[in-house]
Amino acid sequence: MAEVTSASPPGADTPPSSTMPTADPGLFARALADGTAELTLVVENLHCPSCIPRIEGALLGRPGVVEARVNLSTRRLRLRWRGNADEAAALLEPVVEQGFRLAPFDPDIEEAPHEAMRRTLLRALAVAGFAAGNVMLLSVAVWGGLVSDMGEATRGLLHWVSALIALPAVTYAGRPFFGSAIAALRGGRLNMDVPISLAVLLTTAMSLFETMRGGPLVYFDAATMLLFFLLIGRYLDMGVRGRVRSAAENLLALQARTAIVIEAHGQRRAIATAELRIGDRVAVAAGERVPVDGRIAAGRSEIDTSLVTGESLPCPAGPGGEIFAGTLNLSAPLEIEVSAVGEGTLLAEIARLMDSAEQGRARYVRLADWAARIYAPTVHVLAFATFLGWMLFAGTAWQSALMTAVAVLIITCPCALGLAVPAVQVTAVARLLRRGVLVKSADGLERLAHIDAVAFDKTGTLTLGRPELVNGDKIAPADLRLAASLACASQHPLARAVYRAAGPVPAATGEVREEPGMGLTAKLGGQEIRLGNRIWCGVSEAGASRATEMELWLTAPNQPPVRFAFRDAPRADAGALNAWLRARELPVTLLSGDRPAAVRELAGMLGIADWHADCRPADKIARLAELAAAGHKVLMVGDGLNDAPALAAAFVSASPAEAADISQTAADVILQGDGLAPLAEAIRVARLSRRLVLQNFSLAFGYNAIAVPLAVAGLVTPLIAAAAMSASSIVVTLNALRLNVLQRGRTP
Amino acid sequence: MTVLVYLIPAALFLGVLGLGAFLWALKSDQFDDLDGAAHRILFDDGDTPLPRRRSNRDKRAKRKRPVTNGVDRS
User: What strands, in cross-sheet order, belong to the sheet with A281-284?
Assistant: First the structure.
């Protein structure tokens, strides 16, 4: 076990995970046309700006490196060098030596269309900002002309210049809205972009018409400002989603898998798991995750299947035994013959189950779209009625009746509505991101606000998913330290648990030997010390059956053997979270694939009355369907492969960051860090932001209640429209920002 | 009021100049890492050279890459 030295960067406080495969970065590099190779890596422990020159400096000094660029926002490193892809590992050595943990980034995940969209939005925002500023400048002159002696010719000139700026700007900067509105209309739906596009287009068209006529009612300033404000909201939304997304992608990259293939003449070679074929032989070292579905060809070991089945005790496996991708090989190296790839794997079966579960889920209508469904028809009918009213009852000319109708459209201002939701969500998602909660799906936060029941998986979700020493207080400190000094030589989960429990202990001075599947032995002062299983330590089998515990024994000559008991312990804050949920009257269900004894014990410990053991993935979905049929909106929290279909079926879902990647993909929310407490924070923030969104809607409604009668009466001038529009947008945005300062409620 | 005839174009020209500068900065990847950029100015020269401008050949190579939007894997 590597000691953390002073040279390691700040933040290198967590020990390297034993389950992380040491993927050869060269497999993920790609050769470019000009003879260089390019690779993107995630720097897991990049926390401070001073790491930038250390990483880049170390790399740029290496021969052949053309470019090494650290991106602090996304925590990624882009490396380009002259030469072959397989030189990557050697090039990166100086960075790894400094204590940085690097994970190669799968080029398939990288460069999502998202980045291009962000740039398009930023460009549109710049153009809209330029246009809004300059048109407003001219408009102020026109408004000034209302009280001074501006001639009609000058006003006409200013209007024409405004038109010259506004028309191309609206055409360019409005595209994000127009595109989305057209898509929605094609699908027979209404979203917020439909009224926004209509308002912008009608306003611009009518203003152009009025400019040609030489009239005073020109609203170019309102149209460009509307676009500018809305684009700000949209860009911020995109920005924070992008950050969440790249964080989620980084988590997946940390699981990038490779496999060691044993070739015909015994040579071993690392390849990407996607390239494995049926019949290949794969070597899996102790402490590594099994990369494929297969049959054990050689070796005898214990397998931790918790991530696949939820079973918390390791089960023995020997030649001929079936083994699944995602399980953890605990004690001895294995050779596996690949028996299924692609569609035939357990993973593919889970994915199919997920698909059908997802189709069964009712489509959720986002708040903004729901508002648009009410808002758009109302406003358009109102504008039309205004037009008819002025024509028929007041007998005005159709042009001026039309101008009044358009003024109604402008003053009802989808601006406040269009900002009401994104402004709150940006604030909420950014705040949760700081707490380590990644809200991945666009409507995840809204759905989270609705939940009235929670279903948990057990192993790896409520528990840590790794064994912890449970009888530490019954063991003499000297024995614990002795055991730990042996244990630090091993990667076995039980040995690591002993080491964690004992705290920092110097390694044993003598030579420590590890017998795979059995235990450790060392000669200390002429005495043979053994740490291992019952047989290895020669302890009699009497009284052996403790079904829910794993054990290790420590023996020294002439001393009674010491028993170390381990259990998959609940997370430190699992109890507090459950108490918090109970206090808010959110019923909790425990759905586990583990044995009844283990599930009952944990349910008792946490006070969960409703628990189900031995659940297969389909059982979990069925249980969720029962809850949904009873009118519940369920939050499912799970991590394993077996939870993925349930995560997809639930109303909203969350998973810890160590979850299987298919589960992380299915989950709406990802919790980073060791605790579950952020989940309570997420529920709280979700409810708070729903309240703020509704508040914003009522603010917008109140504003309309005052402004619309004025507009219908034909009293609105371009000046009033511009002032009212900015005022309502600013009020709504300020109200959204309140989310940051609102008193943090008590969460565990 | 004839002064408007050249004042308005002058004002617009300056505005367009600013817009152009922003779009150029966006195009040359200066908005990719806002957190890092804030700190890079503090490092000694030579530690971290500015990002090499991509040559045209690079850009072509980049464009030729297959678009990876098939599956949303986040």
Answer: A268-272, A258-262, A281-284, A334-340, A293-298, A322-323
Q: Do A161 and B36 touch (CB under 8 A)?
A: no
Interface membership of A107 toward B (CB under 8 Å): yes
What CATH class is the domain A25-111? Answer: alpha beta
* Structure tokens, A418: 């269009």
Is the minimum CB–CB distance between B32 and chain A shorter than 8 Å?
yes
**CATH 3.40.1110.10-classified regions of chain A:** 465-569
| CATH 2.70.150.10 residue window(s) in chain A | 258-353
- From residue A648, alpha-carbon distances to A346, A359, A667 in Å are 17, 9, 7
Region of A188 (left: φ > 0; alpha: ψ -120 to 50; beta: rest) is left
Q: Pick from A450, A421, A445: which is nearest to A431 by CA?
A: A445
Nearest CA in chain B to A245: B74
List the domain range (segments joined by +) for residue B31.
Answer: 1-43
Which are the catalytic amino acids of A? 457
pLDDT at A173 over 90: yes
Looking at the structure of chain B, the number of domains it has is 1
| Cα angle: A561, vertex A567, A572; to 5 degrees | 130
Q: Is residue B73 included in any domain, yes or no?
A: no
Q: Do B4 and A665 touch (CB under 8 A)?
A: no
Domain assignment of residue B69, yes or no: no
The pLDDT confidence band at residue B71, using thresholds 50, 70 and 90, is very low
Does B31 lie at the interface with A, CB-CB under 8 angstroms?
yes
Kindly report the nearest CA distance between residue A584 and chain B, in angstroms.
31
Q: Which CATH class is domain A258-353?
A: mainly beta
Sole residue written with tokens 């690591």: A496
CATH number of A465-569: 3.40.1110.10
Multiple choice CATH, A435-463+571-685, 3.40.50.1000, 3.40.50.150, 1.10.260.40, 3.10.180.10: 3.40.50.1000
Q: Determine how many CB atoms are found less than 10 A away from the CB of residue A227.
A: 29
| Per-residue confidence (pLDDT) for residue A541, from 0 to 100 | 66
- CB-CB under 8 Å, B47 with A56: yes
| Chain A, nearest residue to B57 by Cα | A34
Which chain A positions have a beta carbon within 8 Å of B35's beta carbon?
49, 72-73
3-state DSSP of A264-320:
CCCCEEEEEHHHCCCCCEEEECCCCECCCEEEEEECCEEEECHHHHCCCCCEEECCC
- Which part of chain A has CATH 3.40.50.1000? 435-463+571-685
In our burial notation (b when 16+ CB lie closer than 10 A, e otherwise), range A716-746 reads bebeebbebbbebbebbbebbeebeeeeeee
Of residues A542 and A227, which shows the higher confidence score?
A227
CA distance A16 to A96: 12
Which residue do the tokens 């002064």 mark?
A: B3
Confidence bin at A116 (pLDDT 50/70/90):
confident
Gap between the Cα atoms of A624 and A616, Å rounded: 13
Beta strands in A427-577 (DSSP E): 437-439, 453-456, 463-469, 512-515, 519-524, 527-532, 550-555, 562-570
Dig out the tokens for A262 from the structure. 């044993």
Strands (E), A228-267: 258-262
Q: Write the DSSP symbol of residue A110.
A: S
Residues 6 or more apart from A592 whose CB is under 8 A from it? A310, A457, A458, A459, A598, A599, A611, A612, A613, A615
Check residues A693 and A356 and name the one with the higher pLDDT.
A693
B55 → chain A, closest CA residue: A34
pLDDT band at residue B54 under the 50/70/90 scheme: very low
CA distance A603 to A610: 8
User: Is residue B37 domain-resident?
Assistant: yes
- Chain centre to alpha carbon of residue A256: 17
| Residue B13 touches chain A, beta carbons under 8 Å | no
- The interface predicted TM-score of the complex, written ipTM, equals 0.71
